[in-house]
Structure formats: C-alpha cells, structure tokens
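Morning - magnesium ion inputs below, output right after.
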Amino acid sequence: MKQKFEAIEADKVYDKSLFDIPNAYSDSIQSVLIPPGLIRNRVSKLARNIANELPENVEAITLVCVLKGAFRFSSMLMEELVKLTDIPVIMEFIRMKSYHNDVSTGDVQILGELPSNVIKDKFVVVVEDIIDTGKTMKVLCEMLNQLGPYKCLIATLLWKELQTEREVVPHYVGFLIPDVFVIGFGLDYNEFFRDLDAICVINEYGKEKFKIK
Ligand code: HPA
Ligand code: MG
C-alpha cells in the first residue's frame, strides 16, 4: 500500500546529556529522538487537524486508545481536542499485545470490549503509539467498522520506516522514525520506560538490564 500522510521526520538524535533524564534510566538510553516539547506541539497540531475534519452535526468524538502504549498520547490528544472543539470527547480502551523483549511474536490478541453505542455514528479515532506492520490495526478497524461509526480514522504517534508491505495507512502520524527500538512517552521495554517523558533510543545495556529472564 502506498504511504500518504504528513509527519515530522525524526531522523536526528540528540545527546542524552542535554536533557533531564531520570537517574533510573540514564544509563539505559542511547540518545533522545523526540524531546517532550516537540511531542506536545505535534500532538496539538494533530488535534487541530482532527478538529478541522469534524462535520457540523457529529455528536461526539470517540478516541479508542490502544493500551498500553498509547495511554499518554491519547490522553494528550484528548486534552488538546477539548481546547479546540465543543463536541464531547469519549475515551475507550482496547488492548493488543504481541511483543516479548524487543521482538514481535507475530501472535496478536485483541482484548477488551467496545460497546456499540460509543462507536455508532461517532467520529472514531483509533489511537496508537506506534504501528509497524499494521496487522493488528487492520483487524481492529474491520471490527470497528462493523459497529457503524460516522467515520473511523487512525492516529499514530510514531511510524517506523520499514521496508515491509503495509497493511494500513494511518490518517494522522506524529513522527516518522528510523527502524530502531524506541521507548518513552508510553512506549515500553518489558513495561519499563513508559514514564519517561521523551521518546528515546534504548541501548544494549538497557536491553540487558530490563530483560525478562
Ligand atoms: N518500542 C516499543 N514498542 C514497540 C516498538 C518500539 O520501537 N515497535 C513496536 N512496538
Ligand atoms: Mg502499541
């Protein structure tokens, strides 16, 4: 599938010593890829893009937060959306899991229920932290479309430049990033680093330190 979206290309890394990194994580980080202020500003712009596409008569926006990684992105998106629109913003949660250490197991599960009344006729935005192959996202979108949303769009904070064929193309993309394992702002490595405010590249020491043995 052809890629068609606008995004900031985060192809430059920053020296971690220039940022305020929590002590627990400083030795596990290679470099900073996206500083917190840049995340905030980009999310604000994505919210504006969503607000600009809302039809007059839509009753509510439903953000479908894909747990766990998207919890910070979806929360920030909600914060920014309520500044820009008078339409209620509903948040629903779904969970998909496929990673063990930094390896995709390929075996994906969708957990959690989506009541049809929060999807039907609503302007639905599925909110992801990162999409790589898009396999799970495709299944989730097919499931949502059966519930009769006014529209169902995908927003992802990050999009990795991979060579492989894409199953879906998101409507809103925050940043285009290189094919490296990233952590922070909700993204984890074995549940750690979600609390880090910046999006960073993990180093080999960090992978070993927080490895599931
Ligand atoms: N980091 C964390 N989770 C992920 C990544 C990543 O780079 N890619 C897919 N899930
Ligand atoms: Mg995820």
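Note: The pocket of hypoxanthine (ligand 1) is lined by residues 99, 130, 132, 181-183, 187 (CB under 6 Å).

O.
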